[in-house]
Amino acid sequence: MTAHKTGDPTTLGRLYGRSKGKALRPAQQRLVDELLPRISVPEEGEVTSQRLFGENVPLHFEIGFGGGEHLAYRANMLPGHGFIGCEPFVNGVAQALGHVGDYEGMGPLANIRLHMGDALDVLARIPDGALGFVYLLHPDPWPKARHAKRRMMNDGPVEMIAAKLKPGGEFRFGTDHPVYLRHALMVMARRPHRAQFEWLCEKPDDFLKRPGGWPETRYEAKARRQGHEVWYFRYRRK
Q: Is residue 12 part of a domain?
């Protein structure tokens, strides 16, 4: 299997937004300096479960993991699976490293590998059909029309996600932003993606209630405090 290189060039290989925020605390900086190099995805070459974890395990991939709450929860719930998380924001990476180093007082999580940078750079190097799950939770909405091409939910990235998922694999997407919601539904309704994915939805409540095994992230909690509705989508790779 080879890396997948097709897709809309206006939506692939480009990273937008800030990468740094407030200064890290000393303990967080130590995690970035010492723990991150030990669990980082290699910068070059094919990305496989054998290379990352030393054995063939089911692979999960999270695009923009924020503070890492969802990534760590899922990794703790499925210790026999391997998790790859990508996030360009160093403060979020530092928070995720805190979970990896000691998850809720239960010890380190050995089944997570991180990449501080653009998720598409790593996704492109994963063999086609290698992933069991892909997660895209509360991505930056880029609400202005002129910025629509910057959204992760666009034809190029969705095409790549479809290629990397194995048949029966699942793509999970969540948002609280109505503009992004409409845009995402439009993208997923296009003919190529309808042929690639089955929307796991039978009634309206299916995308209004958080599915089991899908923990609340800080972004979701913030959205609810602000009175926003949250939508959850599950798509199965045909």
A: no
Range of the domain at 149: 26-237
Query: Strand, helix or coil at 11?
Result: coil
Query: What is the rounded CA–CA span in Å between residue 191 and residue 213?
Result: 30
Annotation marks residue 102 as catalytic: no
Is 16 among the domain residues? no
What whole-number distance in Å separates Cα of residue 97 and Cα of residue 70?
13
Alpha-carbon torsion (206, 177, 137, 216), positive or negative? negative
Whether 94 has a pLDDT exceeding 70, the answer reads yes
Distance of alpha carbon 128 from alpha carbon 143, whole angstroms: 31
- For residue range 173-232, list pLDDT tens digits in order: 999 999 999 999 999 999 999 999 999 998 878 899 999 999 998 889 999 999 999 999
H or E element at residue 160: helix 155-164
Residue 124 has which token pair?
Answer: 């492109």
Which one of 8, 140, 155, 206 is the catalytic residue?
Answer: 140
Token pair for 172: 């999970």
> What is the CATH number for 80?
3.40.50.150
